[in-house]
């Protein structure tokens, strides 16, 4: 009991970078000062991260980033829920903020708070529910990486092949679409071409050899 009381007194003192444990290593918040003081959730030899990841979420991060310049956001990275929805829920027919809301019916979302649509607070409220569910299905690193790329469309958005998945589009058509003026179409077509190239088996040259013929 005496050892436990000493451990509690140690934890209550203000943390300073100059504080050290009994073994000479620095002491961090949430970390025991000695092995006798270890509690559930503590790590004796590993410094836990006490600083959460900082990022901004938006249903259209490319637009928000143009309006909210880096000097207002401190260079904080953006997560685009539209681009992430294309990857996480590719089978859905639409991916706008409000369409995702009605298609997915996120748990805990209060209908009235999310209205009227296209207003700052209601849209932010709906976006937060989408982002929560995305992070439950994939990693933060994936969301940040996808948000830094053009949108990977699950289907052709327009033209004669509208609505078809990219793997059903001819290579000739894909070569035309990689020059499209829409950056998301270009990126999606190029991604499919790259996939086909990677999946294509390598051609192993057969040795040039004559045949032995017997008359």
UniProtKB/TrEMBL annotation:
SUPFAM superfamilies: Ribonuclease H-like (SSF53098). Residues 1-11 have a biased composition (Basic residues). One of its GO terms (molecular function) is nucleic acid binding. InterPro entries: RNaseH-like_sf, RNaseH_sf. Residues 1-32, 192-215 are annotated as: Disordered. Gene3D superfamilies: Ribonuclease H-like superfamily/Ribonuclease H (3.30.420.10). It comes from the Bacteria. This is Exodeoxyribonuclease X.
């Amino acid at each position: 009991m005496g050892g436990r009381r000493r451990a509690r007194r140690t934890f209550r003192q203000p943390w300073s970078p100059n504080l050290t444990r009994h073994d000479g290593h620095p002491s961090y918040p949430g970390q025991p000062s000695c092995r006798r003081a270890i509690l559930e959730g503590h790590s004796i030899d590993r410094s836990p991260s006490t600083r959460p990841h900082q990022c901004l979420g938006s249903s259209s991060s490319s637009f928000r980033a143009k309006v909210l310049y880096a000097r207002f956001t401190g260079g904080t990275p953006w997560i685009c829920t539209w681009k992430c929805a294309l990857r996480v829920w590719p089978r859905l027919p639409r991916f706008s903020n409000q369409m995702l809301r009605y298609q997915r019916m996120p748990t805990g979302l209060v209908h009235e708070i999310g209205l009227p649509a296209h207003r700052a607070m209601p849209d932010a409220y709906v976006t937060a529910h989408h982002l929560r569910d995305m992070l439950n299905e994939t990693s933060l690193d994936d969301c940040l990486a996808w948000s830094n790329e053009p949108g990977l469309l699950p289907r052709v958005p327009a033209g004669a092949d509208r609505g078809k998945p990219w793997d059903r589009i001819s290579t000739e058509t894909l070569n035309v679409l990689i020059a499209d003026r829409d950056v998301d179409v270009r990126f999606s077509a190029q991604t499919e071409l790259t996939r086909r190239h990677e999946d294509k088996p390598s051609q192993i040259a057969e040795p040039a050899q004559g045949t032995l013929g017997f008359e």
